[in-house]
């Protein structure tokens, strides 16, 4: 027999004659209490903090007071227990309200009031979900807590406890009081849970203003370095559609419902959280969207999803409008730099900011109020190079070597450098007058420092090049012979940029060298008396043939070439440095001789370099030489200059040795004549090796260990041409293996390249595979 269930359902719903209301069983009450006391909350401590604090604020709303809510930690010496109290100064609770409202699950005075946070009638009972082990046995715990409430001149104290079948309330105290109305919820807390409560207060109460925390300062030392402390010293930015306090709660857009923050599950909305990566809270009032009964998360009904999507659109729109207004205020060159170099950063009056560059395109920005909006603006570094010259003094900054990504201390001239690196930046008006004492002091203080000067644009650059940089007409004067708007703007722009330089850097001419430094230099100079200069010390000159030579100090001091020195233990370093310099540079510049009779170093007329070993007690004299450095600094100053040559050498080593290891027969001129197809491949290889040999002055392989400290010799990549050579050698090795058995029976003539007997080579053509 067929049954139309849809029809029967409709009849049953429309009829009341057979309808019975479903009900709970007689023993269901205990189950419901257990469900809403223990099992509904995944984060009991967080729930207690959120719900009890919310109740405090709701009480203030009901009483129409603006007093702060107090959360206090105390320690009772009588029972040796810690307590956390949540205190409000609202309406208080009469005995009737405690019994018939607070003591009844799902009974609430707030269900029709959207100005109050609660509404389910279970939040006030959440401390029962925080269970503390009693230590009397497995599964034994205590979850009771106290309520102290002042109502109309009477103080009442209650204990709330779980009970066997259902929670119970017992009145402990009733006495007159002069205290104002209000309620304290006092919860016993295990010592190990105190910091958990603090962490949850930071998280759950992120948007709760007007809260005072008392008694938590002594726990600060137990907090981790990255953990925020409890504070009421913050400001919440309140826009139309969102709130912003900071970045600690979440880096993505979340929800603030009333005062309670909730994360958004973007997968449920069908959206990507990457599109909402900025730390604001969607501003929602109580009742606009629903939450789960535990109030731990949003209830993603269809209405909630629709509401959230519309609110997120509104947040993005408002932020875009705020960013646009922020950029409308760009007037000065410094305003422009801040925007260009940190595009998408939204600033607020309290000094905080966050980036929203992902939701706005730079081309959509309105720069109409920017005084130089009429032209295409170069970036800050280009402008710096145009308007100024900067010179490094002291220890010269390292240049980028063979690696384009290598670190460099050179001055880029970016706006950030001017803002952050100002301790080593100095400016001068007009020409730079070098002052030896001042420069020596700056070198000692900063190692490297920079002198910035304004450029005379007409002297340094052609106007046509400048106009090209700014993408404007190259006319300099108008029809009346007056400077064009661009030329005048260029002058204004340089002056404005220079004002930034002057504000962030130090006036070189205004520097006063400390007197104690001046006195110290005078004392050092006095030590270099004529008698002192006539002394001589023993040195060993590396690269020469003699042993120790006595060198006059005056001659050593006046020698205007780089001097690299070391002690006896540095002999290997000095010898290797001299050898590497000989290979990489001009060996004729190495000074190898000293004439003890005429007190002069022997050079070939070129500017040279000297490698010497001195005794430990004579190292002190090296500071008076013009350009003496310890041998440890040699590689950093010289090796990188020949990077290409070193890399080229070890690139070639990958295949030159392999080619030279081939049997002489296959490298002979006779074989090349016999095998023209191979000649096309071998001849370019042979020519490359011959040219390489002519350009080499020594064998880098002997210094591989030292060079490997400065060059990545284990990951050298060959050029395309070299890869072809390597393939040729590999193919030739395969040919050698194929002919190995045959060549055992062939008598190869002595001096094969001089042997040109046709019969021999005709025989080879017949018996070899090639």
Task: Give the topology.
Blueprint: H1 5-14, H2 28-39, H3 44-63, E1 69-76, E2 81-88, H4 95-102, E3 132-133, E4 141-142, E5 145-151, E6 154-161, E7 168-176, E8 182-189, H5 194-204, E9 211-214, E10 237-238, E11 242-244, E12 254-257, E13 260-262, H6 266-269, E14 281-284, H7 302-328, H8 333-341, E15 345-347, E16 353-355, H9 380-387, E17 388-394, H10 415-420, E18 425-428, H11 436-446, E19 448-454, H12 457-460, H13 463-470, H14 485-504, E20 506-507, H15 515-527, H16 530-533, E21 536-541, E22 548-552, H17 553-558, E23 563-566, H18 571-584, E24 593-595, E25 600-602, E26 610-614, E27 628-630, H19 634-638, H20 643-660, H21 664-667, H22 669-674, H23 676-695, H24 704-707, H25 720-738, H26 740-743, H27 758-767
Parallel strand pairs: 1-9, 12-14, 18-19, 18-20, 23-26, 23-27
Antiparallel strand pairs: 1-2, 2-8, 3-4, 5-6, 5-8, 6-7, 10-11, 11-14, 12-13, 15-16, 17-19, 21-22, 21-26, 24-25
Helix pairs in contact: 3-5, 20-25
Task: Give keywords.
770 residues, 27 strands, 27 helices, Heat Shock Protein 90, disordered N terminus, five-stranded mixed β-sheet, seven-stranded mixed β-sheet, elongated
């Amino acid at each position: 027999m067929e049954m139309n269930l849809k029809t029967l359902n409709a009849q049953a719903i429309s009829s009341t004659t057979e309808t019975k209301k479903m009900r709970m069983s007689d023993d269901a009450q205990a189950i419901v209490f257990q469900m809403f006391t223990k099992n509904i909350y995944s984060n009991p401590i967080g729930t207690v903090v959120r719900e009890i604090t919310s109740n405090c604020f709701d009480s203030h709303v009901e009483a129409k007071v603006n007093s702060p809510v107090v959360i206090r930690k105390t320690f009772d010496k009588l029972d040796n227990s810690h307590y956390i109290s949540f205190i409000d100064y609202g309406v208080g609770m009469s005995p009737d309200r405690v019994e018939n409202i607070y003591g009844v699950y799902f009974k609430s005075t707030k269900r029709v009031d959207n100005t109050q946070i609660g509404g389910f009638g279970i939040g006030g009972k959440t401390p029962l979900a925080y269970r503390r082990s009693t230590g009397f046995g497995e599964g034994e715990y205590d979850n009771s807590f106290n309520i102290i409430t002042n109502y109309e001149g009477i103080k009442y104290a209650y204990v709330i406890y779980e009970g066997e079948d259902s929670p119970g309330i017992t009145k402990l105290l009733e006495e007159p009081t002069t205290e104002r109305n209000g309620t304290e919820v006092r919860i016993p807390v295990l010592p190990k849970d105190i910091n958990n409560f603090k962490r949850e207060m930071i998280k759950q109460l992120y948007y709760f203003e007007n809260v005072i925390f008392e008694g938590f300062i002594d726990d600060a030392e137990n907090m981790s370095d990255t953990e925020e402390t409890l504070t009421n010293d913050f400001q919440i930015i309140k826009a139309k559609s969102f709130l912003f306090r900071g970045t600690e709660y979440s880096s993505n857009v979340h929800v603030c419902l009333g005062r309670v923050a909730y994360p958004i599950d973007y997968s449920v909305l069908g959206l990507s959280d990457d599109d909402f990566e900025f730390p604001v809270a969607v501003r929602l009032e109580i009742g606009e969207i629903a939450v789960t009964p535990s109030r731990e998360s949003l209830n993603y009904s269809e209405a909630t999803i629709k509401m959230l999507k519309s609110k997120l659109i509104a947040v993005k729109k408002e932020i875009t409008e705020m960013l646009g207004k922020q950029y409308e205020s760009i007037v000065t060159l410094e305003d422009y730099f801040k925007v260009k170099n940190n595009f998408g950063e939204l600033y607020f009056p309290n000094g905080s900011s966050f980036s929203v560059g992902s939701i706005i395109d730079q081309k959509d920005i309105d720069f109409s109020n920017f005084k130089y909006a009429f032209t295409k603006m170069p970036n800050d570094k280009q402008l710096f190079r145009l308007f100024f010259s900067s010179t490094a003094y002291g220890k010269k900054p390292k240049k980028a070597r063979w690696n384009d990504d290598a670190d460099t201390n050179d001055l880029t001239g970016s706006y950030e450098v001017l803002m952050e690196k100002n301790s080593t930046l100095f400016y001068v008006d007009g020409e730079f007058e070098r002052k030896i004492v001042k420069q020596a002091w700056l070198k000692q203080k900063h190692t490297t420092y920079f002198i910035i000067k304004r450029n005379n644009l007409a002297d340094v650059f052609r106007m046509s090049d400048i106009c090209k940089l700014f993408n404007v007409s190259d006319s300099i004067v108008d029809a009346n012979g007056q400077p064009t708007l661009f030329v005048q703007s260029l002058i204004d722009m340089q002056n404005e940029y220079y004002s930034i330089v002057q504000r962030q850097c130090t006036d070189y001419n205004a520097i006063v060298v400390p007197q104690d430094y001046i006195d110290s230099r005078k004392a050092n100079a006095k030590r270099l008396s004529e008698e002192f200069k006539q002394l001589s010390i023993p040195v060993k000159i590396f690269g020469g043939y003699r042993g120790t030579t006595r060198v006059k100090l005056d001659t050593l001091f006046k020698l205007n070439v780089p001097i690299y020195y070391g002690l006896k233990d540095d002999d290997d370093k000095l010898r290797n440095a001299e050898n590497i310099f000989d290979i990489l540079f001009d060996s004729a510049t190495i000074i190898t001789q000293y004439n003890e009779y005429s007190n002069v170093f022997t050079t070939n007329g070129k500017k040279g370099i000297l490698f010497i070993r001195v005794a430990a007690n004579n190292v002190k004299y090296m500071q008076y030489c013009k350009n003496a450095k310890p041998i440890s600094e040699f590689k950093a100053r010289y090796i990188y200059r020949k990077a290409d040559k070193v890399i080229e050498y070890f690139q070639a080593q990958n295949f030159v040795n392999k080619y030279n290891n081939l049997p002489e027969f296959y490298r002979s001129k006779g074989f090349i004549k016999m095998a023209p197809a191979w000649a096309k491949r071998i001849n370019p290889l042979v020519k490359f090796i011959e040219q390489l040999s002519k350009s080499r002055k020594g064998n880098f392989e002997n210094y591989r260990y030292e060079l490997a400290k400065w060059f990545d010799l284990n990951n050298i990549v060959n050029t395309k041409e070299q890869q072809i050579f390597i393939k040729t050698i590999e193919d030739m090795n395969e040919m050698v293996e194929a002919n190995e058995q045959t060549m055992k029976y062939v008598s190869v003539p002595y001096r094969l390249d001089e042997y040109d007997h046709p019969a021999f080579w005709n025989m080879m053509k017949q018996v070899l595979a090639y």
